[in-house]
Design a protein that fits this description.
The complex is a heterodimer of chains A (about 300) and B (about 250). Chain A folds into 2 domains: about 160 residues, Rossmann fold (3-Layer(aba) Sandwich), CATH 3.40.50.620; about 120 residues, Rossmann fold (3-Layer(aba) Sandwich). Helices cover about 25% and strands about 25% of the residues of chain A. In chain A, strands 5-8-4-1-2-3-9 form a 7-stranded parallel sheet, sandwiched between helices. In chain A, helix 2 crosses helix 3 and helix 4 runs parallel beside helix 7. Chain B has a single domain, classed as Rossmann fold (3-Layer(aba) Sandwich). Chain B is about 25% helix and about 30% strand. Chain B has 6 helices and 15 strands. In chain B, the strands form 3 sheets. Chain B has a 9-stranded mixed sheet, sandwiched between helices. The longest helix of chain B is centred in the N-terminal third of the chain and has 18 residues. Chain B is globular, with a radius of gyration of 21 Å. The chains are: A alpha/beta (about 300), B alpha/beta (about 250). At the A-B interface, helix 2, helix 3, strand 5, strand 6 and strand 7 of A face helix 3, helix 4, strand 9, strand 10 and strand 11 of B. Strand 10 of chain A pairs antiparallel with strand 11 of chain B.
Chain lengths: ~300, ~250
């Protein structure tokens, strides 16, 4: 009985979702676990704080080549005698976890949202309108964890690093180009999100949205029409066709709350809706609501956020 | 170029969500079923565009399900697929779907396998990657753009903070997300032609039985919304700090 976690830690900062996956694996195991990562990962010893005793890193794998990464995970899983393999349910996890499950003929839970009850894991289905309990009966279980599902464990020490030098076969996927479009917190990981829609009337009016987000330490997001009209970049689009998120706080400004938008945000813990139309369907899904014009409400929110920041 | 598109049938986006048989099954009574939008708008339409641009090749769709999925499969043919396969089974999980498709597709020599990014009922988004593993193909999830030049596919996808451009040698499997193509409405000629296009029914092979959904439940009802007057909007920030305790 052993549990391992595979995480994508490329970049200059340890992703929160990776720390969650290590925490989750270590809680399932009831003790420290082995984590696996790849690429130019920095500062991964710090995963010790989340419950990793050892981190195996395959530096030779640069891109998300799911075939190389599947071989890596299966090899480490065999060496460790792993019975549970934890992934993050993000773009990397979605490429590798299903392959590992198919290769090992293992049951997969895609997007678990918390700790299991026995062999049963809960996940969201029907775009958050229902939940399903999935029972896994195979000797090896593959679990991908939805971001923002559990609090990160801290404490622990530093994890030992082990460089992986085995043969993972030739890469079949090459990265030709990476076009950067801004920085900041990746949306699926953001705990606080300020989002705006058509009610903002044009891209030139986004400054107060960004200011409020910055004051709260939140990520910015937008509705589909706004991304389609190129007022905001596509990676900010949340909803059924865009990114699905489940932050602690979702503030929606000038978004009516169509069912397709709700599908991407209805798992947020607290939802605040600001809309000048009192009949906007979004109010039915909200915890807090303000009926008012965005251009009058936003300055008041900014002022209050400044005051709060000055007090703490 | 031989292209395979995975097609699923799902309850309509606005369908009522209820369960039956002791909450173990979706209650499809009186519900309209549609082609999974990501399979239709993105995967199938892009496959057709690639075939049209090249002026040769075939687009085949494959669906795992009962005879009740055939109207949806015919719609795929009406939109423009050349032929369709239905694997006659009621799968219990994604791995079974992938194994059934792989068992049929493994000796067919597909150059390109396209799936939607997920189905709107189970939201797993994993069948494409499982199938890629079983067919020994590279796999790219959540592609927003796909072009094929000779033996090389160029794939773009949105990643946090930007766009990644990838180059992969065929064959390749991928899942299609927004940006890939626009919806195509079948015209009368397509609908007529679809009636006589081949729809082959294939018996199910053997599958693993390692996981299944044992119970569905509805999320707890949301409490009522707390309204704040617009001229006191600043109070929202206070409440988020003192009452909700999230900022």
């Amino acid at each position: 009985m052993s549990t391992i976690a595979f995480i994508d830690t490329r970049g200059d900062k340890l992703p929160k979702a990776a720390q969650e996956a290590v925490t989750y694996a270590s809680q399932l195991a009831g003790g420290p676990i082995t984590a696996i990562t790849f690429g130019d990962a920095q500062g991964i010893e710090a995963l010790g704080a989340n419950g990793a005793k050892k981190v195996v890193v395959a530096r030779g794998v640069k891109a998300v080549d799911s075939q190389q990464l599947t071989r890596l995970v299966c090899e480490v899983a065999a060496a460790e005698g792993a019975t549970t393999i934890v992934f993050v349910h993000d773009a990397t996890g979605k490429a590798v976890a299903p392959r590992v499950a198919a290769r090992l003929k293992a049951g997969l839970v895609a997007g678990a949202t918390g700790m299991p009850e026995g062999d049963r894991f809960r996940r969201n289905v029907f775009s958050g309108k229902a939940r399903a309990w999935v029972e896994v009966r195979s000797g090896v279980k593959v679990i991908s964890l939805s971001p923002n599902s559990i609090p990160i464990a801290t404490g622990g020490g530093s994890a030992a690093l082990e460089e992986y030098n085995g043969d993972l076969g030739a890469a079949r996927i090459g990265v030709k180009e990476l076009r950067k479009a801004g920085s900041g917190v990746p949306l699926p990981e953001a705990e606080l999100v300020v989002s705006a829609g058509r009610g903002m009337k044009g891209p030139e009016h986004w400054a107060p949205v960004e200011e409020l987000a910055q004051l709260l330490g939140a990520a910015t997001a937008c509705s589909r029409p706004v991304a389609d009209m190129h007022w905001r970049p596509h990676h900010e689009h949340v909803g059924q066709t865009g990114v699905a998120i489940r932050p602690n706080l979702y503030i929606a400004i000038g978004i009516s709350g169509a069912i397709q938008h709700l599908a991407g945000v209805n798992q947020s813990k607290v939802i605040c809706v600001i809309n000048k139309d009192p009949e906007a369907p979004f109010f039915k899904a909200a915890d807090y609501g303000i009926v008012g014009d965005a251009f009058e409400v936003l300055p008041k929110l900014i002022e209050a956020a400044k005051k709060l920041n000055a007090e703490r | 170029m031989k292209i395979l598109v995975l097609l699923s049938q799902v309850p309509d986006t606005t369908a009522r969500i209820a369960f039956t048989n002791g909450d173990t099954q979706y209650d499809g009574n009186g519900v309209t079923f549609i082609m999974n939008p990501y399979d239709e708008w993105y995967a199938l339409v892009r496959a057709l565009e690639l075939k049209e641009a090249k002026g040769s090749g075939t687009v085949t769709t494959v669906t795992v399900g009962g005879a009740d999925t055939e109207a949806t499969i015919r719609k795929g043919l009406a939109i423009g697929a050349d032929d369709a396969v239905r694997i006659d089974a009621q799968p219990a999980d994604a791995l079974q779907v992938a194994e059934l498709i792989a068992g049929w597709a493994k000796d067919k020599g597909f150059d390109l396998v396209l799936a939607g990014k997920e189905t709107i009922d189970h939201n797993s988004g994993v069948v494409g990657a499982m199938l890629a593993e079983l067919l020994d193909m590279p796999y790219v999830p959540l592609a927003s753009k796909l072009d094929v030049n000779g033996e090389t596919a160029t794939v773009e996808r949105d990643v946090p903070g930007g766009v990644e451009v990838l180059e992969v040698k065929l064959p390749i499997a991928l899942s299609a997300a927004k940006g890939m193509a626009e919806q195509r409405i079948p015209n009368m000629r397509g609908i007529m032609a679809a009636r006589t296009k081949p729809l082959q029914v294939v018996p199910a092979g053997t599958v693993s039985n390692v996981a299944s959904t044992v119970k569905f439940e509805l999320p707890p009802a949301k409490g009522s919304v707390k309204m704040i007057p617009a001229d006191e909007a600043g109070k929202l920030i206070e409440l988020l700090h003192t009452e909700a305790k999230i900022i």
